[in-house]
Amino acid sequence: MTTTVQSDSRTGKVVLVTGASSGIGEATARLLAAAGHRVVLGARRADRLAAVAEKIRADGGTAGHHELDVTDLESVRAFVGAARESYGRVDVLVNNAGVMPVALLEALKVDEWNRMIDVNIRGVLHGIAAVLPVMREQGAGHIVNVASVAGHRVDPTAAVYCATKFAVRAISEGLRQESRDLRVTVVSPGLTSSELTDGISDLGMRAVAEDMMAIAIPAAAIGEAIVYAVNQPAEVDVNEIVVRPTAQS
Ligand code: NDP
């Protein structure tokens, strides 16, 4: 387990980002750091995290990283614990880690269904379980969950992926209704440049998905939306943001 969290005296929010080794999570971490927040990056590929954190520090930001598997509650607790130990608090958790191995249901890729449930739903719940006691104790906090336009509509080949993203929105709305001291934001990207389609095992489906990505917007477009929500005053809770390419149907 890699644990590297750098401290300094800056006063920006302490923001944890899961899935920060590539794509939307990486872009979000960079933008949050550029906005003055102290970021802690989590994902399984520790070498990639280290490189992103190093680049943020070279650009004058404050960043640390911690190896993380969101499917493992103890791993998520260790991620949150390392950040808290270093900075004394956790202001924001961005539950961004996700996988999207789309395929027709009749292909019976049951292992991939379970993987999507484990990462996209259980991973988000593990994040909530790890930070909720900390935020309740602080009397403040912000949980940003990355869903998808697939959490607003269902398309063929994406039934399970869509189900996981509908679940993220349901969990987020439930958490929001139960909370008077926490802010809860759901950010739903449309087609966005990242490594997400690399995980599609069906090569025909992957080719279709890669074709669709021709109109994808940069990951930073989603990161900017997250920075906007994070930077609102404490009494302002931005609940839902959908950001998709202009050309997406
Ligand atoms: P990427 O594949 O580039 O990023 C996914 C991130 O999740 C990686 O950093 C990966 O890191 C991490 N991850 C995967 N499994 C785990 C795990 N078990 N534990 C910890 N981290 C994990 O794709 P995106 O940036 O596109 O995806 C980010 C989020 O955006 C996802 O939730 C996705 O569903 C959502 N989204 C993306 C869209 C798009 O078009 N790109 C559209 C709508 C939503 P590592 O492999 O190092 O663990």
Summarize the structure.
45% of the residues lie in helices and 16% in strands. It is of the alpha/beta class.
What does this structure look like?
The protein is α/β, with parallel strands linked by helices. The protein has a single domain (11-243), classed as NAD(P)-binding Rossmann-like Domain (Rossmann fold, 3-Layer(aba) Sandwich), CATH 3.40.50.720. The protein is built from seven helices and eight strands, in the order ββαβαβαβαβαβααβ. Strands 1-4-3-2-5-6-7-8 form an eight-stranded mixed sheet, with helices on both faces. It is globular. NADPH dihydro-nicotinamide-adenine-dinucleotide phosphate is lined by residues 18-25, 43-45, 48, 68-71, 96-100, 119, 146, 148, 189, 191-192, 194-196, 219.
Give the helix/strand layout.
Elements: E1 3-4, E2 14-18, H1 23-34, E3 38-43, H2 46-58, E4 62-67, H3 73-87, E5 92-95, H4 110-138, E6 141-146, H5 159-178, E7 182-189, H6 203-212, H7 219-230, E8 240-243
Parallel strand pairs: 2-3, 2-5, 3-4, 5-6, 6-7, 7-8
Antiparallel strand pairs: 1-4
Residues 18-25, 43-45, 48, 68-71, 96-100, 119, 146, 148, 189, 191-192, 194-196, 219 line the site of NADPH dihydro-nicotinamide-adenine-dinucleotide phosphate (NDP).
